[in-house]
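User: I'm putting together a small comparison set for a docking exercise, and I want a reference complex before I start. The sequence is below, and the ligand is 3-isopropylmalic acid. Could you produce the 3D structure with the ligand included, as structure tokens?
Assistant: Of course. I'll restate your input first, then give the structure tokens for the complex.
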Amino acid sequence: MDAHLVLKPRAVTIGFRKGKAMGRKGRVHVGVARGRCMGNYRIGVLPGDGTGREVALEAQRILNAIEANTNHGFEQTVIQCGGQHYMETGEEWAEGSFEFCRDEADAIYLGAIGYPGALLPNGDLAGGSVILGMRSGLDLYANLRPIKLYEGVPHKVHGRFTQIWEPGMVDMTVLRENTEGLYHSLLRRSADRAQGREPYEPPSMEFPGLQGEVAYDPRPISEHGSERLIKMGFDIAETRNGAPLDGVKRVSCIDKSNVTRGCQLFRRTFDKVAERYPGTEKDYGYIDAFMQWLTRSPESYDVVVTSNMFGDIATDLGAVLQGGMGMAASGNIGDDHAFFEPVHGSAPKYAGMNKVNPIATINSIQLMMDWLGRKNGEEELIRIGRLVDESVADHLRDGKGLTYDLGGNASCSAVGESISSRLVAKLSEEF
Ligand code: IPM
Ligand code: MN
């Protein structure tokens, strides 16, 4: 059954058990968007912590704009969650929320997870059931992180705004493995918690020669996990225009295969998958050297595939090239499910100030449209994703109304309004 063909009920309440003492606990707040067409897609909106709550409103503004100006409707279910929610209610999210995301939602938007001092009794990040629980529990094996520099975006270095990299020379997509590697144990524990299971603990190990207390995180890398990620990388290269330098379709395998066995398997798997794509150039790099090339010659990169922790670190540096974390969007993608989130995190310092850049969020909705369109064979949604991109590009090129991180003093909502009204104009012209 095609999920998008089902007319879904206007509102849903989940996680509520009759007879349970509720307090502020255990109930999912439900918000339904208004628009002329309801219910084609059901979207879980998880604002989370800190500034995640502000940017989530901008995600909703874009969804509402698309709904009001096309025949694509979005039923939005807002689920409160995260570290602050945990401090207030004793729950990372209401019971039934994971199941809603797994069984009901066609796509999910997540604002940010992380609240100062919010830790679970075992020391894990409170809210981890949400972000890490979904990554592992929904088998979202690829973390897609485009790094693209738009015209009009300066770089903040030494506290000054200058143009270091050139727009047009930075346009790559990094695919970070999202279910294994150094995160594996934490991911499994978080997914177990999200599903009410006994949390996984890795077996104890001896480390000869070490003294005193020892803490460790196993870093398993599987052929299967690598294969599906790398394949997605080659498939994405087919949809792109190649590297800015030469227009050549290229997939770069970034690892540390001179040192770790997991990376050796990753690279062997890369070579096997690459054989199926003779029209795409293979490229290799060690993660340490890649950090230099990423900054010095980003124009030679098209698609990059890498393991979990390397991808986490490399994409924060990559964000600098695109104007900072406020510009970095992402998609956590599996075969059946996906959630989309800005990479910047909850930025508690700026929470509640209507100050942060909503573009990472708006571009996450762009990725959501592209993913929904490709998954459901809806060309129009792919086109709508492109129009979101053009609206962001127009806003930035105009140079007015930038948030503080780009050297301006516009508010989060003002930038959101500017981009969404540009989008409305484009949509009403075309649809
Ligand atoms: C990210 C974040 C997360 C990660 C944190 C919040 C667990 O840094 O999405 O990049 O490390 O993956
Ligand atoms: Mn990160």
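Residues 113-114, 131, 312, 343 surround 3-isopropylmalic acid (ligand 1) (CB under 6 Å). The CA atoms of residues 250 and 417 lie 37 Å apart.
User: Thanks, that's exactly what I needed.
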